[in-house]
Amino acid sequence: MISTRASRHLPAVITILLALMLTLVPLPKALAPFRPDWVALILIYWAMTAPSSYNVGTAWLIGIFLDVAQGTLLGQHALALCVVVYITIKFHLLMRVFPLLQLTATVFALLALHQFLLFWINGVTAVTAPAISYWAPVIIGSIVWPFLSMFLTGVRFRAQTGN
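-> structure tokens emitted (163 positions)
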């Protein structure tokens, strides 16, 4: 019983850890603004497919870890991720039946909301950043989403079937 529960959560835990690593790995200055927001993308996927397991509390913990690891204002990423995951959970039944193009547009809106919240918090605390550092992750994340979604669906299916 415990091993089946652990094996069911293992793909999500591994992908969340991988997303955190991809977010924290240093990139050259020219490429850093074009890094997709891996953590937000992974949390959107898991909140949409398993909302009872990966919810606002999960987003809060991961966001706090991300704030500490990046040295940003404590709670900045936590708040933005919580809002995005809350909206995803609220509409997860509707989002599951969207065609891929419509789901990609929805993810674009969620990523834009995430970046807007980070922009707003940075504005309140007088932290400046170029506009490309806010818009590039949204656009690149929307381009990556269909491939990431298909990959994670395959991983989740393999974990459920035990292959």
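The chain has one domain: 2-161.
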